[in-house]
Amino acid sequence: MRAEELRRKYIEFFVSKGHVQIKSSSLIPDNDPTCLFTTAGMHPLVPYLQGAPHPAGTRLTDYQKCVRTGDIDEVGDPVHLTFFEMLGNWSLGDYFKEDAIKFSFEFLTSPEQLGIPLEMLAVTVFAGDADVPFDEFSYNLWQELGIPAARIAKLGRKDNWWGPAGITGPCGPDTEMFYWTGDGAAPEVFDPADKRWVEIWNDVFMEYNKNADGQYEKLARRNVDTGMGLERVTAVLQGRKSCYETEIFAPIFAALDEVRQLAAAPAERVASERIIADHLRTATFIIGDGVTPGKVDQPYVLRRLIRRAIREGRKLGIQGYFTARIATAIIDEFGPVYPELEQRRQVILEELDREERQFEQTLEKGTREFEKFIARVPEHITRKVISGKNAFYLYETYGFPIELTVEMAAERNFVVDMEGFKAAFEKHQEMSRQGAEQKFKGGLADDSVATARLHTATHLLHAALRKVLGEHVEQRGSNITAERLRFDFCHGEKMTPEQLKEVEKLVNESIQADAPVECTETTVEEAKAAGAIGLFENKYGERVKMYRMGAFSCEICGGPHANRTGELGSFRILKEESSSRGVRRIKAVLG
Q1: What does pLDDT average to over the chain?
Q2: Does residue 285 register a pLDDT over 90?
């Protein structure tokens, strides 16, 4: 079964079970300061899993684009990806364990769906502990459906528990489904430690609330959250050892072979080829959602992905610029599924080409800095070493690949202190992982009154920027806490003091007007017809919430707001600066 068919079958199956298909959200979380990218199918739905009503109803399904960067340096092996698609279905206070498990079982085993033989499947359930009992219901139900007890493993919190997003909040056990990928018949007894059993689906049952005292209370409104990785399951169903061996990556590798002018495709893909395919696919999608390469946050991750792909291309002997040629194949392949890629085709290709040309200059600068390190070491010293600190400085400041530093050092009879480099790198990686992959609370930094007011202020700021700078201004991200707001928007030039003063004036005039903040539930088309601005429009489902603040601001949004603009007090811009190429950033507070 091809990925296209799996994606289609999944959505059609759950729509037939009363679910409403919602669109994939942007890779850039909407007003979530704790996570750089959308990391899971449930990420955009956290506010609704925590109790907010979803405009599309209580049964939802989608395919969601995701990026995880915690294992970025592992990419190149046959397993790891930075970009992936997650299939999911949700119950928001609707059905619970029985229907969720029966839906999963039917989709996996029914001849009309995936048709997986029963003997190829195994499952895990929560074993229970001192705080929460064993999930006996799921254990018994799987047996009723035909999974023998020997194929059901009872595991603890590490494996079968979905914790609260914060210290407190909704949580619960999960049940995971596994597929046998080994040669021959699957063992009668399921051993979860055997890597030939591959997890293909996860059903999370949010039935508890962890309170401030650390106690687990039963939730009155229980939810179901599920996730199935498209690439992984496609590989499993095709009997492939790696998702890189499926048709998902075939057009990307074909474009790479054409760039390399190979007469025939290699029998096996090497690490450099996998890195290029993965990183440029991820970069294409990230640029498609409005990010451009830069020095911090999402722009920094994007730049790192592109430059690592370029370096691997040089290892393969590629001369000249090639990233845009690979991206063209990616857009051709995924554009029909994710229209934003086709809509931003020209921008994507231009940004990749520009970054590739800039990296060429960066290599020149890094080389000059490298020569300075060489020159500092006296000729008479026998063991000539470039310190780990200096090697990491080249890597972090100039994007200078460590492999290149080692290679150039060897040519000059130097060695690189790799232990020192690894120590500096691991410290940096841990900080990045905490920033990019930590658990999120969804929506904003919190749901306090102060945060809601600052969130409301971003609407007024957005409207004021469009009035002062022009309608090309669109939001490119925000970070809102109870103390301040940070707002990123597309604009090619530094704002003048006069422009900043005018924006501040317009926002404060709107605050002083004390207009009501009115919320209307409507369709995307009706909201657009009413003049509403849509932030990251590809993320919305058919029904949306539209917030109007007098005649000044009208936006599609899902977060908490003040009741009236007058509650904001006063607005002051602290700083305007560059966020990344073509994107400016404003930091502001309410007085």
Answers
A1: 89
A2: yes
Residue 405 burial class via C-beta count within 10 angstroms: exposed 0-12, middle 13-18, buried 19 and up: buried
SS (H, E, C) 73-142: HHECECCCCCEEEEEEEEEECCCCHHHHHHHHHHHHHCCCCCCCCHHHEEEEEECCCCCCCCCHHHHHHH
| pLDDT (average), residues 111-137 | 95
What is residue 446's predicted lDDT score, i.e. its pLDDT?
66
Thinking of the domain 3-242, which architecture would CATH place it in? 2-Layer Sandwich (3.30)
Give the C-alpha separation, 88 to 437, whole Å: 20
- Answer for the pair 440, 32: CB distance below 8 angstroms, yes or no: yes
**Amino acid (1-letter code) at residue 173:** P
Q: What's the CA gap between 565 and 548, in Å, rounded? A: 11
**In the predicted structure, residue 538 carries a pLDDT above the cut 80:** no
pLDDT tier, 434 (very low <50, low <70, confident <90, very high otherwise): low
Q: Where are the beta strands (DSSP E) in 10-82?
A: 20-21, 59-67
CA 236 from chain centre, in angstroms, equals: 23
Q: Closest Cα partner for 72 from 282, 316, 248?
A: 282
Q: What would the mean pLDDT of 508-519 be, rounded to a whole number? A: 94
Question: 449-590 maps to which CATH number?
Answer: 3.30.980.10
Helix (H, G, I), strand (E, B) or coil at 589: strand
Walk across the sheet containing 485-490 and list its strands: 475-480, 485-490, 583-590, 571-580
Place of tokens 């063992």: 187
Q: Classify each residue of 31-40 as buried b or exposed e, where b means 16 or more C-beta atoms within 10 Å of its C-beta.
A: bbbbbbbbbb
**150, two tokens:** 């020997």
Boundaries of every domain in the chain = 3-242, 249-360, 376-439, 449-590
Burial class of residue 354 (count of CB atoms within 10 Å of its CB; 0-12, 13-18, 19+): middle
Q: Is the pLDDT of residue 147 over 70?
A: yes
Query: Can you tell me whether residue 306 is helix, strand or coil?
Result: helix
Same fold, 3-242 and 449-590: no
d(CA 577, CA 580): 9
